Amino acid sequence: MVEKILIILILCLGTLGCDAMLSEADKQLKVIEKLEKIFQKSWKITDKLLLDIV
């Protein structure tokens, strides 16, 4: 009986850990997407400046 309770506790803790890692990965992905948008905007500005020069 005690072994079954321990197994259930370990499984619950494992899923909580996975949820925490997934939410952290999701946060990092959102940051990366924001940075990507900023770089895209800066490239557009650079392209416009280069076209103006040429």
Characterise this structure.
It comes from Sebaldella termitidis (strain ATCC 33386 / NCTC 11300). This is Lipoprotein. The protein is built from 1 helix and no strands. It has 54 residues and is mainly alpha-helical.
Which consecutive residue ranges, at least 5 long each, have pLDDT under 50? none
Number of helical regions: 1
Written as H for each helix and E for each strand, in order along the chain, the element string is: H
Task: Please indicate the percent range of residues in DSSP E strands (runs of 2 or more).
Answer: under 5%
How many E-type strands?
A: 0
Q: What summary fits the major beta sheet?
A: none
The rough form would be described as rod-shaped
Helix content range of the residues, please? over 70%
Radius of gyration: 23 Å
In whole angstroms, the N-to-C terminal distance is: 79 Å
Content-based structural category? mainly alpha
| Average of the residue pLDDT scores | 84
